[in-house]
């Protein structure tokens, strides 16, 4: 599979850059993630316990799992020479078993300096009903198609 490279010059502010959908969330997803993280909280895999002790209809995805999917989307979009510099996320609603997660990134700001080619993106996650499950921002560094011109030192 060829990896696609996104270049700094191709990104314009106030445009949707990438979106991706994951799901539906299964117990296999949450158990694998809980095992990877050594997270033994029953909230993420035990339907009966969650109903009895947390008052929820079923288990929920961990925030770290959702962030990992979001980062995967961003790094896939940025390409092999792109780099995720910073990420800030606020979780606003749980993702339950059976839910689908849709993540989007929109360019909010762009560097004016080709020597430091960063993009700030507004991030959003929604479920299958369009309800927001997370919001955030990230900074992504992308390669330039041509090297920036250097000024001669005196």
What does this 3D model show about the protein?
With 154 residues, the protein is an alpha+beta fold. The chain has a domain at 8-23 and 63-141: Thiol Ester Dehydrase, Chain A, CATH 3.10.129. 23% of the residues lie in helices and 29% in strands. The chain is built from 3 helices and 5 strands; from the N terminus they run E-H-H-H-E-E-E-E. The protein has helices at residues 27-37, 47-54, 63-78; strands at residues 16-22, 83-91, 101-110, 118-126, 132-141. It has a 5-stranded antiparallel sheet, covered by helices on one side. A hairpin with a 7-residue loop joins strand 3 (101-110) and strand 4 (118-126). The longest helix is centred in the middle third of the chain and has 16 residues, at 63-78. The relative contact order is 0.23. The model has no long low-confidence stretch (mean pLDDT 93).
Please name the defining characteristics of this protein.
154 residues, alpha+beta, Thiol Ester Dehydrase, Chain A, 5-stranded antiparallel sheet
Second rung of CATH, namely the architecture of the domain at 8-23 and 63-141: Roll
User: β content, as a range?
Assistant: 25-35%
Number of helices: 3
Q: State the low-pLDDT regions, or none.
A: none
Biggest beta-sheet profile:
5 strands, antiparallel
Query: Strand order within the widest sheet?
Result: 1-3-4-5-2
Class derived from helix and strand content: alpha+beta
Mean pLDDT: 93
SSE succession:
EHHHEEEE
By DSSP, the count of extended strands is 5
**The CATH superfamily title of the domain at 8-23 and 63-141:** Hotdog Thioesterase
Gross morphology is elongated
The helix fraction, in percent, is 10-25%
How large, in whole angstroms, is the Cα Rg?
19 Å
Q: What's the level 1 CATH class of the domain at 8-23 and 63-141?
A: Alpha Beta
- Looking at the structure, the CATH topology of the domain at 8-23 and 63-141 is Thiol Ester Dehydrase, Chain A
Q: State the separation between the terminal residues, measured CA to CA.
A: 47 Å
